[in-house]
């Protein structure tokens, strides 16, 4: 009934009517078309035969879990301009359901309680300063009559926190900040006073970051709420906390008292992070036997490439091991619990290509744990990232602040070199033994950024893929047992339920998410971004999915690129600073937002300026950049995009994408 099924968030269901012997007979029971065409990251929740799901722009749907028939829909009417501050697509990861109410966090920072019967609003509370660049994409959790919610937006200059609201009234009960504020003002609590000693410079002027944007779990025995925090802002620590320091509680796993929000313990996965190694991945509780002794643990496959097993009462490290190739650290010191870093001091001496990248060895896609096999099922990936200092960095609140030289990650112009780079991106499903910290088996996928996982009592593991499939594996051996074509990227966490004695398996599918915005060149081509769907399977299901409209998009001949190398370099820097996070490296669209290389405005400097500065596409979400860019900047960016359009056109005609 809760996100991840229970408070422990194992994403394991004991249901076993669908098992290794009959999963081959799984067929589509029904599908439901969502009203939006952006990324689908929702985990469905089913209560008494009703399924509650969310879609992009924080819409909520109540569906008959047996037939897929819509019972009601709620649209919080989020302004499309809020999407500008949602780095990682305008997604939503699901609702909480408790005592006849459905709780959803809207992208613009509202927490809303709906009547589960008809979807009418019971209360709505604004949980953030809406003048700042906060957004919310995570699912709320209900713990002891309180709705707990964090937020996103570190890079845009916000201060992270997590809050609890009374489920009945919507009144705030407690709030825990994850980074200290201005030290000239009184600290909110002793934890902030302690954390402030690990910072230097004037970090609070950038907000601090460390937002709590996804994972959480609750342990009734210790009364602790666990959550993960994101990176500090900007990414490069030299620009954030110039004298170093750990920068608590950024990139950390934190435990607070469920009743009061009081600090209990923290474990920082990446002290002084400079690589965007958020520690917001799934926090899975389990009872394991380690060295002959029963241990109550919490586990995370962190973005930084290490799999952590912690004692969940104390937060002490039990073990850590890399689950993908890691080149920024050679291990984790078992005594201090700190990573043993490799190489120069956070790329101070020069740029470096590292594993993992800011996309992480594992990201938000939920992992699962089967108490039956003792294995964790982990959507992992190997994507390199180049890091270097941005010598021209200037912090601008509300813009994308990394202080890293993002041009280092741009693609070479040569089509062969581009293809080689794309092919170097890998993704796999790893079955990980957390007791012995080693891989049990893996299934290799067609590229990175694949779906969340679910384990079941039928000894199955379910996972969707970026290339449009939903698969089942034998949980013990990894043998592929079943696969279904979803025709679109299937990234969300699956779930399973029974109605009238029949077991169903559900997953959200839809084209989008951060990888599709930033790394468009590496996105599998699956047709145009139709609306997302919820797809639901059962044994002997005979329904069919509509095939996507495969409308091949041509590449119009761009205007000739006549700008000087200096203009292109300046345009590239401006583009990467202001446009990249939505429109992608090298202006290559993953298909979610318009491909700038193909826009008619490229040929018309005045029209291009109207879009970038005049806000002529504001209602579609393309905000005006007049507060940060000048006429000359818009022209630099146009010249850069023309150059990329010419490279893309040549590549398209060389047989590439
Ligand atoms: Ca981040």
Short description:
This protein is mostly beta strands and 657 residues long. The chain is built from 7 helices and 37 strands. It has a 5-stranded mixed β-sheet with strand order 1-31-32-33-34, with no helix packed on it. Strands 2-37-36-35 form a 4-stranded antiparallel β-sheet, with no helix packed on it.
Description:
With 657 residues, the protein is mainly beta. Among the domains are: 150-347 and 357-363, Beta Barrel (Lipocalin), CATH 2.40.128; 565-656, Cytochrome Bc1 Complex, Chain D, domain 2 (Orthogonal Bundle). Helix content is 11%, strand content 30%. The chain has seven helices and 37 strands. The strands form ten sheets. The protein has a five-stranded mixed sheet, with no helix packed on it. A four-stranded antiparallel sheet has the order 2-37-36-35, with no helix packed on it. It starts with 11 loop residues before the first strand and ends with a helix. Bound molecules: calcium ion. Calcium ion (CA) binds at residues 154, 230-231, 276, 278.
**Fold-level CATH name of the domain at 150-347 and 357-363:** Lipocalin
Main β-sheet, spatial strand arrangement? 1-31-32-33-34
How can the largest sheet be summarized?
5 strands, mixed
Number of strands: 37
Uncertain runs are: none
The number of helices is 7
Portion in beta strands: 25-35%
In whole angstroms, the N-to-C terminal distance is 43 Å
Helix content: 10-25%
**Nearest-integer average pLDDT:** 95
The value of Rg in angstroms is: 23 Å
Overall body shape: globular
């Amino acid at each position: 009934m809760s996100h991840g099924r229970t408070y422990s968030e194992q994403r394991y269901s004991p249901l076993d009517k669908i098992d290794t012997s009959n999963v081959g007979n799984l067929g589509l029971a029904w599908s439901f078309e969502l009203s939006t065409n952006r990324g689908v990251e929702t985990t469905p929740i089913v209560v008494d035969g009703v399924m509650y799901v969310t879609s992009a722009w924080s819409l909520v749907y109540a569906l008959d879990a047996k037939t897929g028939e819509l019972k009601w829909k709620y649209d919080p009417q989020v302004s499309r301009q809020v999407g500008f501050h949602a780095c990682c697509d305008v997604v939503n990861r699901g609702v909480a359901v408790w005592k006849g109410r459905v709780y959803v966090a809207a992208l613009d920072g509202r927490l809303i309680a709906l009547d589960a019967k008809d979807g009418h609003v019971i209360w709505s509370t604004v949980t953030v300063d809406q003048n700042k660049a906060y957004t919310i994409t995570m699912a709320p959790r209900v713990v002891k009559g309180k709705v707990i919610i964090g937020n996103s937006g570190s890079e845009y200059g916000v201060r992270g926190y997590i809050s609890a609201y009374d489920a009945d009234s919507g009144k705030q009960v407690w709030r825990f900040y994850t980074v200290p504020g201005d030290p000239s003002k009184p600290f909110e609590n002793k934890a902030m006073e302690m954390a402030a000693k690990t910072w230097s410079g004037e970090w609070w002027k950038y907000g601090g970051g460390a937002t709590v944007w996804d994972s959480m779990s609750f342990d009734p025995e210790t009364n602790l709420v666990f959550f993960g925090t994101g990176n500090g802002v900007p990414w490069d620590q030299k620009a954030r906390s110039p004298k170093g320091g750990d920068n608590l509680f950024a990139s950390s796993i934190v435990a607070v008292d469920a009743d009061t929000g009081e600090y209990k313990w923290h474990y920082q996965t990446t002290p002084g992070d400079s690589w965007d190694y958020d520690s917001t991945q799934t926090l899975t509780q389990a009872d394991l036997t380690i060295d002959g002794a029963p241990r109550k643990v919490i586990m995370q496959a962190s973005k930084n490439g290490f799999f952590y097993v912690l004692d969940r009462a104390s937060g002490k490290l039990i073990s850590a091991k890399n689950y993908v190739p890691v080149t920024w650290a050679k291990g984790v010191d078992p005594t201090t619990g700190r990573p043993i870093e490799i190489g120069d001091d956070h790329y101070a001496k020069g740029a470096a290509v590292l594993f993992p990248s800011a996309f992480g060895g594992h990201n938000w896609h939920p992992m699962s744990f089967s108490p039956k096999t003792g294995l964790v099922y982990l959507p992992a990936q190997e994507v390199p990232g180049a890091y270097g200092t941005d010598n021209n960095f200037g912090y601008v609140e509300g813009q994308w602040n990394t202080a890293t030289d993002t041009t280092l990650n741009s693609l070479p112009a040569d089509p062969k070199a581009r293809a080689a780079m794309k092919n170097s991106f890998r993704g796999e499903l790893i079955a990980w033994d957390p007791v012995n910290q080693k891989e049990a088996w893996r299934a290799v996928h067609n590229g990175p950024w694949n779906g969340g996982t679910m384990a079941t009592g039928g000894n199955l593991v379910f996972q969707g893929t970026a290339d449009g499939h939903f698969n089942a594996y034998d949980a013990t051996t990894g043998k592929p047992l079943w696969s279904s074509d979803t025709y679109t990227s299937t990234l969300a966490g699956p779930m399973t339920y029974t109605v009238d004695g029949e077991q169903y398996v559900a997953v959200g599918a839809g084209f989008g998410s951060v990888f599709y915005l930033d790394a468009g060149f590496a996105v599998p081509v699956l047709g145009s971004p139709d609306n997302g769907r919820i797809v639901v399977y059962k044994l002997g299901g005979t329904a069919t999915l509509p095939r996507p409209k495969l409308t091949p998009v041509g590449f119009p001949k761009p205007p000739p690129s006549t700008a000087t190398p200096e203009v292109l370099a300046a345009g590239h820097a401006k583009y990467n600073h202001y446009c990249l996070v939505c429109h992608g490296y090298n202006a290559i669209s993953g298909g979610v937002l318009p491909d700038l290389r193909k826009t008619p405005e490229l040929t018309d400097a005045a029209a291009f300026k109207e879009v970038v500065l005049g806000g002529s596409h504001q209602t579609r979400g393309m905000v005006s950049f007049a507060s940060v860019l000048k006429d000359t900047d818009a022209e630099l960016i146009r010249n850069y995009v023309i150059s990329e359009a010419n490279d893309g056109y040549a590549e398209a005609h060389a047989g590439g994408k």
